[in-house]
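lol so apparently i was supposed to do this last week
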Amino acid sequence: MTKLKWGMIGGGEGSQIGPAHRLGSGLDSKFEFTAGALDHRPEEGREYGQRLGLASDRSYGSWQDMLAGEKGRDDRVDLVTVATPNSTHYEITKAFLEAGFNVLCEKPMTMTVEEGEDIVRTAKAAGKICAVNYGYTGYSLVRHMKAMIARGDIGKVRLVNTEFAHGHHANAADADNPRVRWRYDPAQAGVSAQFADCGIHAMHMASFVTGQEVEKLSADIVSCLPVRTLEDDAMVNFRMDGGTVGRLWTSSIAIGRQHGLGIQVFGETGGLRWSQEQPNQLYYMPLGERLQVIERGEANLSPEADRSTRVTIGHAEGMPLAFANIYKDLAEAINAQKENRDMDPAANLYPRAEDGLRSMAAVVAVAESGKQDGKWLDARPPMFR
Ligand code: NAI
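anyway here it is w/ NAI bound
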């Protein structure tokens, strides 16, 4: 089978997330890195792209040049990843969808709910795939957790407890550093800082594994560093449409915490616990029995887990491999689209524009509820009410 052609916008030299996308997209030999506009500085972007192996005429100086250049080609890219700063996601994603490209957009997908709804409508009208990179849902054992919950291994889900707490913005002496400061400035970051950056991963994970959507929420938000306008810590209570109670903590001042994404799900007949920093183990406690440690790669896991693992048991698989599973799903979705057939259901797990939109509605509800002393608010986008 010929490889699909992949392009990236952003993710230039020294960027945080660019390398994980390049590793993830290349891992299964399903995509070939063919085009890019990698940097906000045209010359640096063009030069870096060529160093990474792009042809000189497909290493573009801007996303606008890339759109114009790729649009006219018979061998145009099959998928464009948008890995630029948040405030540019909407404009770039919309422009590429309208021109008939499939897009994988980094989170948060947009800055407002209205933009999110527009992206959902635009993707639908264009008949193109628009995915959002909640890449941690690609982990094999997260997918197994979802499959276990769906087949009833822990019974009806009562409670989900999720968190994403790190300590990398805890240093008051560093608060004025321009690389940190913009994140807490409403003019650049929007209505929320820590929840929009990290909390949405935890909330999306709760929806992904339970198969339920968040309906309403109540938030307590604080800026532990008083110089900050936006929150650096939030505690969010929520309720899901299947009756599940949700608890979420997110923080950027939790000194000693590194990445800090984790989730626990408690049902009527069992509990499950998983943490991003030890992603190769899933803890399963069936009611009244002994604690079991499920290892990634062991026998008799779900088809979803088997499909999303590559390295033999006992060897660690990490974050770029989770991203690779999002790309693997997207390759299957794009090939199914090209061949006019149904896609493999075990691959139909990649996060959608609809998920990105739901996150934006939750971001706005968290910011508003925080201002109103934790008032419970509808967390659904108007489009889904
Ligand atoms: P960064 O600041 O480290 O890198 C941004 C890159 O985009 C730079 O190379 C910059 O030159 C380039 N860029 C900026 N404007 C551009 C434009 N108009 N055209 C082309 N290139 C442009 O940022 P980082 O941390 O890599 O974040 C990028 C995005 O990825 C953000 O939206 C962030 O929220 C998201 N992210 C997602 C993660 C995940 O787990 N899904 C983890 C980390 C970041």
